[in-house]
Design brief:
The chain is an alpha/beta fold and about 525 residues long. Helices cover about 50% and strands about 15% of the residues.
């Protein structure tokens, strides 16, 4: 006999209760933490939008998860092998009995990581052709409206407006954005796309040039202008775009995508518009040179005209030769007309003689005689032709009647043969139908015998009865017929009603004690 287990007062916990207790203990103990490690096993966002990966260092690793809503707001997206600093909450996952960090913020770990990420992104976008000079647009010489994407409170916008006012005042539209922080990249991209979405002629006019400007700062401060969403918005812009980020030594990927890079925001204003006073001076100088050129050209034309006038001959000398040529041409025309008139008169006389020989009366007489000859010949040829046609039609009629009679005999023979075949098929069909009906009658009789043998009617004829309750359902056991239950007993020759009174123990029913025993027939009664 085995030894009984020792008794204990420790409460029993389910696995779910233990997992919940561990989860609450870890979350209460650690709360929010900042972890530094390298991203591992990252395969991109899940189909649900969440991202799952690991953070590891030289000796340990921890599972990490970024929910869908947080992932879309991350400035630094997870990348395989990137060293990051993750801020989040430590919790457990009961389904795997493991702990994990739910990341709420992600940033590169140090300047080296940022530079590596920047170089990798530069190579990726360069492979897509976003830095090609062929896709960059030419800036307008003098834009009517300039759109500026920058912070409305910084010194950058004041420097740009001041420089534009000094060089060439223009209408300026400012799209205020944050130039640093988590939402900065999204705001800058929305501003660039917003300027492009404006239509020319609308209540808010569309700018002819866009300047994206910011003051100087560290690589981390300027990181918004290295984000891919800003770069793609700049590449898609149909409006020429100038990048003016930081000081002259600062650079971002937006400088490579933009149509023109300005070393400073003030330099962007200088590249956007020319100097108005210089344009006025150049126009005045060109106007003066144009007027001088016109006067010099007029003087040359006047001198040339005087020289040509002196070289021209007088009017009488110019008209003498044409006059003489006209007189000679008149004489030749008169002689030509006389000769032509003589030739026409001769031709008319010859035509008159020819017409007399071919008078209409003579021509009509010749045609009438020819017509009479042809009519006689036609009457002579009509009778034989009609006779030949009549004989040919009679021959064709005889042939048609013979062929029709032959076709009728063939059809009658074919119909007789078909009738004979139909009678044979009808006889075969009747025989087959009779045989089939006999087989079906035999099969039906066999099935009826089988139904009778397998049904309960045969059993009832052997002395059994079928017990049913008041609903007509068969009673299969004693438990289905408690005392007082109305029953129906079906025998082979009919049904009777019955009432259940209790279980039957197999002994005959006892007679009442006060019942008087009858003496046997023909014998003496009992004395007791």
């Amino acid at each position: 006999m085995s030894e009984s287990a020792p008794l204990t007062n420790a409460p029993e916990l389910t696995v779910s209760e233990l997992s919940g207790a561990l989860k609450r203990a870890i979350e209460d103990q650690f709360g929010h933490v900042r972890l530094r490690g390298e991203i591992s096993n990252y395969r991109g966002p899940h189909s649900s939008g969440h991202a799952y990966f690991c953070l590891k260092d030289a000796n340990a690793r921890i599972d990490a998860v970024v929910w869908k809503g947080v992932f879309s707001r991350l400035r630094t997206k997870p990348q395989e092998g990137l060293e990051v600093i993750a801020t989040g909450k430590i919790t457990t996952f009961p389904g795997k009995s493991s702990y994990q960090i739910v990341i709420e913020q992600l940033e590169p770990a140090g300047l080296g990581a940022l530079m590596a990420l920047l170089e990798e992104r530069r190579k990726k976008l360069a492979a897509e052709g976003m830095f090609d000079e062929a896709r960059k647009k030419k800036l307008p010489f003098l834009p009517k409206i300039i759109g500026i994407v920058t912070s409305p409170t910084g010194a950058v916008i004041r420097d740009i407006l001041h420089r534009l006012h000094d060089r060439f005042p223009r209408h300026v539209m400012v799209w205020p954005v944050r130039v640093q922080g988590e939402t900065s990249a999204q705001e800058v991209a929305n501003a660039i796309r917003g300027f492009n979405a404006l239509k020319p002629g609308d209540k808010i006019p569309r700018p002819d040039l866009v300047i994206v400007a910011r003051g100087g700062g560290s690589l981390e401060d300027l990181w918004s202008f290295n984000e891919e969403e800003v770069l793609r918005a700049a590449a898609e812009s149909q409006i020429p775009l100038i990048s003016a980020i930081g000081h002259e030594t600062d650079w971002t990927l937006l400088d490579l995508v933009a149509d023109l890079r300005a070393p400073t925001p003030t330099g962007a204003a200088e590249k956007a518009v020319p100097v108005r006073s210089e344009l006025i001076s150049d126009v005045a100088d060109l106007s003066r040179r144009h007027t001088d050129a016109i006067f010099r050209a007029l003087d040359r034309r006047r001198t040339d005209l005087r020289a040509l006038a002196r070289a021209l001959p007088g009017g009488e000398s110019l008209l003498a030769t044409p006059r003489q040529r006209l007189d000679r041409a008149g004489e030749k025309m008169r002689a030509s007309l006389l000769a032509s008139l003589g030739r026409r008169q001769l031709a008319l006389a010859q035509a008159s003689r020819l017409l007399a020989r071919h008078a209409p009366q003579a021509e009509l007489q010749r045609v009438t005689g020819r017509l009479n000859t042809l009519s006689f010949r036609l009457d002579a040829a009509r009778a034989p032709l009609t006779q030949r046609r009549r004989e040919r039609l009679e021959t064709l009629a005889k042939s048609f009647h013979a062929a029709l009679a032959s076709r009728g005999r063939l059809l009658r023979r074919d119909l007789a043969a078909r009738e004979q075949g139909r009678q044979v098929l009808a006889a075969r069909l009747s025989a087959a139908l009779a045989a089939s009906m006999g087989r079906r009658r035999e099969k039906l009789a066999h099935l009826d015998q089988l139904r009778f043998a397998l049904g309960y009617g045969a059993i009832l004829q052997r002395g059994f009865a079928l017990v049913r309750d008041a609903t007509g359902a068969a009673v299969h056991s004693v438990t289905q017929a408690p005392p007082g239950t109305s029953l129906s007993l079906q025998f082979s020759d009919g049904r009777i009603a019955a009432m259940a009174e209790g279980a039957f123990d197999g002994a005959p029913a006892k007679k009442p004690r006060n019942a008087t025993k009858k003496p046997p027939e023909g014998g003496q009664g009992s004395l007791f």
